[in-house]
Amino acid sequence: MKIVYMGTPEIAAVILESLIAGGEEIAAVVTQPDKPKGRGYEMSFSKVKQTALAHGLTIYQPAKVKDEGFLALMEQIAPDLIVVAAFGQILPKRLLDLPKYGCINVHASLLPKYRGAAPIQYAILNGESETGVTIQYMAEGLDTGDILMKEIVSITEEETGGSLYDKLAVAGAKVLNAALCQIVSGSASRTPQNEAEANYVGTIKKEMGRLDFSCTAKELERKVRAFDPWPGTYANLNGKMLKFWRCEEIIFSREEMQRARENAWGYGSILRIEKDSFAILTGEGGLRVKELQMEGKRRMRAEEFLRGYPLREGICLQF
């Protein structure tokens, strides 16, 4: 079966590696154009392009997949199947209708829940106990096509965006291989999505990492995990950015809350300082900081941070 593979980030590269290892015929790899990165603005290749180069595969990087030249090229290749994983562009109907077996998408959620660009982070943000990977036939809408197969993945209480990303990459490769077997054998099923259960999640932006301490400690703790490693979460301490890497929800004592009221300490104020951590007053409960990073410094445990940067109760972190 002749496959055109379309993807861009690391999760898509892991899935591509699995297809190659399984002996699939990859007629071409399509990924996003190279972008300048870093202070020197050197051109950066996507993870999928790096993988494709390592295996000597043919690579295309159209600015827009709806351009006539690219569509004509795909028609010339005449793939039996197009596999898409976190590609970053919406495919036009002409491309969707081209392959014999259609176009399938590897989506990192249990559709119809969390359609859109950031299903991994939002599963953690919303406190889900499980998520997964869906193999779906692609339609003109965003993640709206019929479901072929799903693989459930559990979310632990300490799960970060990075660790869940890695788990879903492995699960995606596994379930895609199973789906390809069904497609080739003619046993693949199609289950329409329940539109009443659908919801969409947008792109995560860097500024979304700012912590608003009027939110609950539970919400903030989930956000710290969901946005690790990117974009990270932060607040300002004495005019410098302070990043948060590992936190936990706690309950302040009655005496601590009384002291906060007497001193008019608001949300974002440090209410407890211990040897290995400090805790911040939030809209509900406290956020105990266990691992952090001051602007211009390396990531470190709170115990180490406190030895070199002494804090006092009542200091307010701005948000």
Radius of gyration: 23 Å
Beta strand %: 25-35%
Structural class of the secondary elements? alpha/beta
Quickly count the helices: 9
The helix/strand order is EHEEEHEHEHEEHEEHEHEEHEEEEH
Strand line-up across the major sheet:
5-2-1-6-7-9-10
Unreliable parts: none
**Shape type:** elongated
Question: Cα distance, first to last residue?
Answer: 54 Å
Number of strands: 17
Helix content: 25-40%
Write structural notes for this entry.
The protein is α/β, with parallel strands linked by helices and 319 residues long. Helix content is 29%, strand content 27%. The protein is built from nine helices and 17 strands. The strands form four sheets. A seven-stranded mixed β-sheet has the order 5-2-1-6-7-9-10, covered by helices on one side. Strands 12, 13, 14, 15, 16 and 17 form a six-stranded antiparallel β-sheet that branches. Strands 3-4 form a two-stranded antiparallel ribbon. Helix 1 (10-21) links the parallel strand 1 (2-7) and strand 2. The radius of gyration is 23 Å and the shape is elongated. The termini are far apart.
